[in-house]
Amino acid sequence: MVSIFELVEEIKNYKIKNKNLIVCLEANNLRVVAMAMFKIIERNYCNKRIVDRLAQLGKLLKNNKFIGPWQFGHAAIATLSFLDNKDAKTMFNELFESLNETDKFLVENFIKSEPYKE
Fold first, then answer.
1. What is the pLDDT of residue 37?
2. Which domain of life is it from (predicted)?
């Protein structure tokens, strides 16, 4: 089994396999999860397991600081919107509609800012 450290190095070096992105997305280290989310967006890689994990992460809207004003949940919900996948789009719409106006504003601005681009 490959360690999370080795997977992070693979992400940094653009050598990670898609199946290992899912392992990173399920890691307990939010930095690793963020790197995996950005790589998933870059590759437009999506399946049911990814959608489910992003939906789970989408609940982290308090005390889980990500970047600037955004919480980790905002980034996870926005990630769903970037993926060209019917299940991801459906889940994005469900989660987005359940947000309060402040969280909707933050998700919309995260999407517009495209922070995943280098």
1. 93
2. Bacteria
Are 51 and 91 in contact, with CB atoms under 8 Å apart? yes
CB 72 within 8 A of CB 60: yes
Distance CA 64, CA 28 (A): 13
Region 95-99: mean pLDDT is 97
Higher-confidence residue: 115 or 101? 101
The pTM of the full predicted model, rounded to 2 decimals, is 0.88
Looking at the DSSP bridge assignments, the partners of residue 65 are 71
How far is residue 104's CA from residue 2's CA, in Å, rounded to a whole number? 37
Question: What whole-number distance in Å separates Cα of residue 16 and Cα of residue 12?
Answer: 8
Residue 65 contacts by C-beta under 8 Å, 6 or more apart in sequence? 71, 72
Residue 116 sits at φ, ψ, to 5 deg, of -75, -15
Interhelix angle 30-43/48-57, rounded to 10 degrees, is: 130
Joined tokens for residue 78: 């926005």
